[in-house]
Amino acid sequence: MNRTQPAIVAQSAVRRLPRWALFLLCLAYVVPGFVGREPWKSADITAFGYMLELASGHADWLSPTLLGQLPEFDALLPYWLGAWAIQLKPAFVPADFAIRVPFALLLGLALTATWYGVYYLARSPRAQPVAFAFGGEAHPKDYARAMADGGLLALIACLGLAQLSHETTPSVAQLAFSTLSFFAIAAMPHVAGTRRIVASLCLVLGVAGLSLSGGPTVAVLLSVVAAGVAVLMYRAQADDRAAWQSLAVSAVAAAVVAMTLATGLDLWRWRLGQYPGPDWQSAGRLLIWFAWPAWPLALWTLWRWRLHLLSPHLALPIGFAAIFTATAILTPTGDRSLLVALPALAALAAFALPTLQRSMAALVDWFTLLFFSLCALVIWVVWVAMQTGIPAKPAANVARLAPGFEPDFSTGVLAIAVVATLAWAWVVHWRVGRHRAAIWKSLVLPASGAALCWLLLMTLWMPLLDYARSYTVTARQVATTVGSTDCLEIYGLSPADTAAQRFYSTNEIRHAGPAPQCAWLLVDVHALARLPQTVNMRQWRLQATLQRPTDAQDQLVLFARTTAP
Q1: How far are the Cα atoms of 20, 140, 149 from residue 350, in angstroms, in the given order?
Q2: What is the pLDDT of residue 278?
């Protein structure tokens, strides 16, 4: 073994993280956020609107639209998945819940593919720890399994993963399919026979899915990275060149598939519009909090493994992370592009674990313990204030920020939150009292703390978040005023507002024109100035101004028709 290898790991340090504990952690992270909520502002409900249009037959499957409006992302597959879920759901299942099922599975796929991707990267000979003179170093499979546990924990711990990964948007599909490609590329050199064929198919499927999910250019770039790593390793080592040759061929085939799909379905579009260019300060702030705690560990990996950066276990995640980080900086939707970079950053973070000093690991533990314990305490205090009015200041803040909100109490929700909090206390006790030598120990508290706070938010605060982030209140105001009528005209509404009216209203929604078609006209307040250019206002009278209770800038103006139909 190369003496420059920075990883020094004993067999005692690669003890297995219990599968039941890892599964429960993933379950506690994935399920909350997909269950028991309304569609949220704004990308979440907008994507839902396109799915509704497809499912009802009001849009072309090869060109999804929402009352004639094109989507922000030229994606197809995510909207297809949601539309199929709506069409296949039982009658008693709400449409907004049905579409979350495939996206929950996509998030589960991303977590699973991350684990297996890191596992196969750690199986690489160049990733193995230093061999001891008298034995006792970690066995390759045990070492790879422990590193995979660490990579998955690092991904769950990333602060930016929580909200965006629980939305029903093309970003979740991009996350899942890019991570599937990541796994396939990592696995192919270490499997043979049928498994290699399966890995090749996963690569093609991942790249094709990414292309159909709005990222054809990135899909081709990932294939180029895979081919580049394969060519590099084919030239660098004499053994098992057939595996690297197979990877290169599969990567080229995947690129061809991606380009064929993008060309045939007209997905090669670049919609930056008047985007002025990157704001480096904002991009830096986004990267710091969004990818925490993976990015500092990833930087530590690059330093400690700096003599091995061209090895496949580092070159592959570096390539993936570089592509998506650059995309995040150079596009206006930086957070959604950075979301797709998180699995690669988590993989890099995992390779920092064998090189962490005890003092640094202790610093991570203490910071995480204090941060997430404080966050959990704040969530509990605000919930108690919402229910009882005590403490008075948090209750007053909620009343000020969400006027008109009425808290709801649920014994089941309270029980889940209590169990989760007790589990966090047990994890803290376990961490300081047992398994101190485990290589993944420094990421147990970050991952568990992130899962705890997300679960508490999605249980204790769910009624408040629904009130603040959904369109239910505004839609009910419109429905109460309008009542049952044939149709409702709209003008200047955002895709999110259009989708909300399409979902919550029982009336047909139409675009406004010069001649009145319906008894009511709904207009975005920011479009009032240009409204007379399209609509004859002498035929309409102002009926009401409706405002989202948590956003004074989000107002809709309702007009009633003055002339007889």
Answers
A1: 21, 15, 8
A2: 64
**The two three-digit tokens of residue 124, written as one number:** 């690489």
Q: In this structure, what token pair is assigned to residue 4?
A: 């420059």
What are the distances in angstroms from CA 468 to CA 43, 398, 554? Answer: 15, 11, 12
Beta bridge partners of 66: 69
Q: Return the ∠ at Cα 294 (arms to 292 and 297), rounded to 5°.
A: 120
Where do the H-state alpha helices sit in 237-311? 241-264, 280-290, 294-304
Sketch the domain layout of the chain as residue ranges.
37-355, 358-469, 472-561
By three-state DSSP, how is residue 436 classified?
coil
Is the dihedral angle over the CA atoms 430, 434, 435, 437 positive or is it negative?
positive
Distance between CA atoms of residues 506 and 486, nearest Å: 9
As separate numbers, helices (DSSP H) first and strands (DSSP E) second, the chain gives 22, 5
Bridge partners (DSSP) of residue 248 are: none
Taking the C-alpha atoms of 240, 242, 245 and 251 in order, what is their torsion angle to the nearest 10 degrees? Answer: -90
In order, the DSSP letters of 477-538 are HHHHHH-S-SEEEEES--HHHHHHHHHH-SSEEEE--SS--SSEEEEEGGGTTTGGGTS-GG
Q: What is the pLDDT of residues 137-151, one digit of tens each?
A: 788 898 999 999 999
Contacts of 529 (CB under 8 A, 6+ apart): none
- Other CB atoms within a 10 A radius of the CB of residue 165 amount to 26
84-95 per-position pLDDT tens digit:
999 999 999 999
- Residues 47 and 76: their CA atoms lie apart, in Å, by 11
Q: Taking each helix axis from N to C terminus, what angle separates 100-122 and 77-88, rounded to the nearest 10 degrees?
A: 130
DSSP summary character for residue 276: -
Report how far residue 266's alpha carbon sits from residue 257's, in angstroms, rounded to the nearest whole number: 14
Confidence category of residue 334, pLDDT binned at 50, 70, 90: confident
How far apart CA 103 and CA 77 sit, in angstroms, is: 11
